[in-house]
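Before a colleague's protein record goes any further, I have to sign it off. Alongside the sequence sits a line of tokens, each denoting a local backbone shape. I want your independent view on whether this chain really folds as the tokens say. Where you disagree with what is written, explain briefly why. This is what I was given:
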Amino acid sequence: MKVINLLPKNEQKETKLQFFAHSQLSFWIWTIISLTICLILVLAARFYLNSSLTATANEVANKREILKSSDNELLKQQVEGLNRKIAGINNLQKNHVYWSTALAELARLFASDIQLDFIFVDRPTGKIEVQGVAANRDSALKFWADLQTSLYFKDINFPLSNLERATNGSFTFTFFASIENLKQPLK
């Protein structure tokens, strides 16, 4: 629809200029309002992000302090202890073939009335030392005789002090494992 303006040419021109000025003013007002809103949103987002960044930095610092705390040190010590135990188990596993046989043979040789108090095994030399209490001399002598006949043990040191008491006598044996026989496959 076309609008007809019946005003004289000067006034028509002036009306057009007023309309153009009004449009320009509205455009710039809305542009400034839009820019102001965008600036406010950008500043609000920046403030929010800075506060989030500060909170995150504080949380990271707190977590670092927790990691450095004594509780973490205790956990670290426990992990290191566990690693040492695992290394010990791995070491035993490497040598279990013949040492398991030696310990099983030693356990088989003990009579039911012998109480074992101490056992020391030196793997590089094969030296084994046992201390305990025998119910009587015969049990200690039987243990010595069984050690003598075992293929897995040699060089048995049987001190006479093991026979001092007739009952409940303490004993100490020192002997060596025959590593060569222990490494042989079981028959």
User: Anything to note?
Assistant: Residues 9-47 form one domain. The mean pLDDT is 83. DSSP finds four helices and four strands in the chain. The beta strands are 114-122, 127-136, 153-157, 167-177.
